[in-house]
């Protein structure tokens, strides 16, 4: 089954076209990412901004053409935190259906966590409890499971875009702002993840733009290389060092850091705080970075639904 998945997140809009066979991705035909910042201002206004919507519409126009050229048999679009939180989210979803024919689904935080876990673990065996961490622009999902069984999941309101807007107002952020943001991340993580759960995972996988960017920065990858990022182990000490260096730079200088996509520069500091605080909460000296996430999970689920 040839499946196309469009993931419309708070910070980026992404495309995956792949052949799915027997519940696994057999061949990837197309993958694209645009940082569209759909969630700009949603935490403050409760609505999707018209300019942000136009950025996503433009990306989806490009993706629809790519999907057609690849002759996908089913197309699904998953919409996450920004659309869940916005008063005009439903009308935006209907616009995607009208213009592009996407089977657009605003998914719950619970389903987002489940699909992310499915995608992140689909390429490796793991019999021991594992944490899957998905740092998004508007929310962060944490899932603990072993094999196909999920033991714990939570979708928090911590996000790189949301917490940048709430806490990091100066350029570069002041030490006081950084401390405020770190404390807010730590507090919400501690409230969201019971102490008993934190002791279960023996390892962790981190997905999405923040950990992949940190892996690329750590290796000084220019240009970005998915093969070298996927499976890379990030050390906690290295993440704290990278975070400190990024936080000292003004935004325009941050855009030129080797390994960091310029469009991720505005929110990477808040995302990095989520990364290091999660590692500290679970007692991880390191964790693994994965290029597989909700895109792969949604593709596998879509193929199973058709079958």
What does this molecule look like?
- Strand 7 (140-146) and strand 8 form a beta hairpin.
- The chain folds into 2 domains: 2-109 and 294-306, 2-Layer Sandwich (Nucleotidyltransferase, domain 5); 124-289, Nucleotidyltransferase, domain 5 (2-Layer Sandwich).
- It is an alpha/beta fold and 307 residues long.
- It has 14 helices and 11 strands.
What is the element layout, followed by pairings?
Blueprint: E1 2-8, E2 12-21, E3 24-35, H1 42-45, H2 50-70, E4 74-79, H3 81-85, H4 89-100, E5 103-106, H5 109-121, E6 130-135, E7 140-146, E8 149-156, H6 160-167, H7 175-192, H8 195-198, E9 203-207, H9 209-219, H10 226-229, E10 233-235, H11 236-248, H12 251-254, H13 268-282, E11 286-289, H14 294-306
Parallel strand pairs: 1-4, 4-5, 6-9, 9-11
Antiparallel strand pairs: 1-2, 2-3, 6-7, 7-8, 10-11
């Amino acid at each position: 089954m040839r499946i196309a998945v469009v993931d419309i997140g708070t910070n980026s809009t992404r495309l995956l076209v792949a052949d799915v066979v027997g519940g696994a991705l057999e061949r990837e035909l197309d993958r694209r990412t645009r940082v569209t910042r759909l969630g700009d201002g949603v935490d403050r206004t409760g609505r999707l901004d018209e300019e942000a919507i136009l950025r996503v519409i433009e990306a989806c126009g490009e993706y629809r053409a790519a999907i057609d050229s690849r002759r996908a048999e089913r197309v699904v679009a998953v919409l996450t935190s920004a659309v869940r939180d916005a008063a005009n989210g439903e009308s935006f979803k209907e616009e995607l259906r009208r213009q592009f024919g996407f089977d657009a689904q605003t998914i719950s935080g619970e389903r987002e966590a489940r699909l992310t876990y499915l995608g992140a673990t689909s390429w490796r065996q793991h019999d021991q409890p594992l944490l899957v961490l998905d740092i998004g622009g508007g929310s962060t999902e944490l899932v603990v499971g072993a094999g196909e069984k999920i033991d714990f999941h939570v979708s928090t309101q911590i996000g790189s875009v949301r917490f940048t807007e709430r806490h990091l107002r100066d350029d570069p952020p002041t030490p006081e702002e950084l401390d405020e943001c770190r404390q807010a991340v730590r507090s919400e993580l501690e409230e969201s993840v019971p102490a008993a759960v934190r002791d279960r995972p023996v390892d962790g996988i981190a997905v999405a733009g923040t950990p992949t960017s940190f892996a690329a920065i750590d290796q000084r990858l220019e240009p970005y290389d998915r093969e070298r990022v996927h499976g890379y182990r990030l050390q906690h000490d290295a993440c704290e060092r990278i975070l400190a260096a990024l936080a000292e730079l003004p935004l325009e200088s941050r855009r030129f850091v080797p390994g960091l996509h310029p469009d991720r520069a505005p929110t990477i500091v808040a995302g990095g705080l989520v990364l290091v605080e999660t590692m500290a909460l679970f007692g991880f000296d390191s964790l693994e970075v994965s290029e597989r996430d909700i895109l792969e999970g949604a593709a596998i689920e879509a193929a199973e639904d058709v079958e």
